[in-house]
Amino acid sequence: MRVTKSDISLELECWVEELSPAQLAAYEKVANEHNAIKNALKSALTSNEGRELFNGQVFQAYSFKGKVLQELKEATLPPKKPAKVDAPSTTVGGTRGGARKRPSNFVYLESSDEEEDDVPLAKRIAVAAGKKGLTPVASGTLGNITKGAKGQKGLPSTSSGAIGKSGKAGASGKGTTPSKGDKGESPTTPPTNFKPSEISSVGGLVIGTDGKDGKDGKDQGKETKLQGKTFPSLVVLAKPWLKVKDMSSTRSKLDSKVKLVLMLTPNKFTEWLIQEGLLKAEQKCANHRSNELKLGVYSDATKFPYTGGYVWISECCPMRFVSVFHGSIFEGAPHPPSCILKLIYHWSCQTNIQNVVQWVKVDNVYIKGVYTWLRAICTLAVHQKCKKLGGPERFVEVGVISLGTTSQDGQQRQVKVEVLGVLDYAEKTIRLRAVEPVSDADRNYKKRFQTILEPLQRWVHKDSVICIDLTVDKMTLYSMGFKNIIQAAATDSSAKHTNSAVMDYLRRIVPRMFQNTLSLLSRQMIQQFLDELVWREQFGTYALQAFNNITSHIAEQTRMNTNETLTQRLYQVATNPFKDWSVLPANYRETPANTTPKRLKKR
């Protein structure tokens, strides 16, 4: 319909108001500054051999050539060293004149089809070192842990003193910079003072680096006070309820399994981690992405005390050593890997936090960080492994509760978060979501339920029969595409199908988890614990199952190859657990599970 001027019944008059003196002065000041900068740039063009790259209505771009830049460039060039004639050193494999040399105390383990699994690792190293021409193998080989694990009673345990050392959680290892001459024009000889170690390798542990950075007493006092603090997130326990059975007999199996692993020597422990998938079984050169690294062993095991000498090396970058912990949950840790394995064990068993601090000899800050990683693993597993609930002619219960805090006098009540629960009662599977409550100023009923029920489109099969009570908006579900909806009060005994089971779960299990900490937790942390609860309901109803599945899920995430490290990705998940993490990144590439070095494969 076209509207003419005669149809308009309302006419308004307007007039332009003059600028005040203060506004005029402000505009004039800005214009003067703009002109002054423009004139200065133009004068610099002539005096510094510059040129104008772009000149638009708003922006201008200039390029300058100046003495300052040239002098700085010359000053940063390293001085040329006179060529030195080094004494002939042992080379790796029958190399030709243009091949790269490697430190004489670096040895590859040979790969052959012969059964050498029963030969001790130290003897294999000695045999390999005694050969004049050692050929680098295509993939590193390690001793077979499946046979070597038999009769481990006499093995020394890991150093408890080293486990007790505390440090900063989340620190990153310093990597050695590769040499720039990687094109093969001339052979590269390592400097005589070059000493590779776990700390200097890429992605290595950083044990023993604390206390050397010159902190003053005040900072150390603050850090000690922080380490002794109990965080609210450390006292929240996600107790499963749907499938709980008496599985106390399996606890002794878990204890025996973990104790046996902790008794392994460092090299055997490293082999076990690779075999379980907790360490990457394949690495590529950061500078030459098509070149695969080779797993070798350093003859001086004291340089890599927590791996027994194992380290990743390459022919293209001989000065670049990559730790076996690179890209794993152990990367950059200030504690030995056995310490982190103990924390995974105690998280699986839900051990009291005071006992964890006393037994593992770590502070609350580090425990909080590791437990945050494990909850992020739970979030990823729930998003990537949980199937859609329901299906044709299957009933799915949907319920919503509000969690809040009450003042001491009981007069004021504030809603902290609203929790959506979706339960497939037949399969005993549940999904939970923490939703930010709608403010009092925006109490739109339809908008509220559109926000709360939004995850149902990804969680529930559209042909399912949805059971709701009278507090859930039925029309919102219809608009989402759900056609089979049964609405009845949860307490209605005459109704054949209700959502009483999910409401009972939301009113009993969820509030008990946040009983004393709800006001101290953010919505992101609340969602982390809800994801952990969902994970434990499906993958960790008892301690042994929880330990086996959490290590399996960590291994799956370790095999993923993206631009960021595993710990960086876990921090992103913990920061935003509401994101749909079932969608894999575009640069995602997964290492196949069967790429474990030959002698480590289970038989």
Can you walk me through this structure?
Residues 157-177 have a biased composition (Low complexity). Residues 191-200 have a biased composition (Polar residues). Residues 79-99, 136-225 are annotated as: Disordered. The chain has 603 residues and is an alpha+beta fold. The protein has 18 helices and 12 strands. The chain has a domain at 388-537: Ribonuclease H-like superfamily/Ribonuclease H (Nucleotidyltransferase, domain 5, 2-Layer Sandwich), CATH 3.30.420.10. Helix content is 34%, strand content 10%. A 5-stranded mixed sheet has the order 8-7-6-9-10. Helix 9 crosses helix 11, helix 9 packs across helix 17 and helix 11 (364-385) crosses helix 16 (523-539). The chain is flat, with a radius of gyration of 32 Å.
CATH domain class name of the domain at 388-537:
Alpha Beta
Radius of gyration: 32 Å
State the CATH architecture of the domain at 388-537.
2-Layer Sandwich
Secondary-structure element sequence? HEEHEHHHHHHEEHHHEEEHHEHEHHHEHE
Spatial ordering of strands, largest sheet: 8-7-6-9-10
- Residue windows where pLDDT falls under 50 for at least 5 positions: 68-78, 84-125, 131-190, 211-221, 598-603
Number of helices: 18
Give the CA-CA distance, first to last residue.
79 Å
- The overall pLDDT, averaged over residues, is 73
- Strand elements, count: 12
SSE blueprint:
Blueprint: H1 21-47, E1 51-55, E2 60-63, H2 67-76, E3 106-107, H3 121-130, H4 145-148, H5 160-163, H6 217-227, H7 251-262, H8 266-276, E4 294-298, E5 310-313, H9 337-349, H10 353-360, H11 364-385, E6 395-406, E7 413-424, E8 429-435, H12 445-452, H13 456-459, E9 465-468, H14 474-479, E10 484-487, H15 500-513, H16 523-539, H17 543-559, E11 560-561, H18 566-575, E12 589-590
Parallel strand pairs: 6-9, 9-10
Antiparallel strand pairs: 1-2, 3-4, 4-5, 6-7, 7-8, 11-12
Helix pairs in contact: 9-11, 9-17, 11-16, 11-17, 11-18
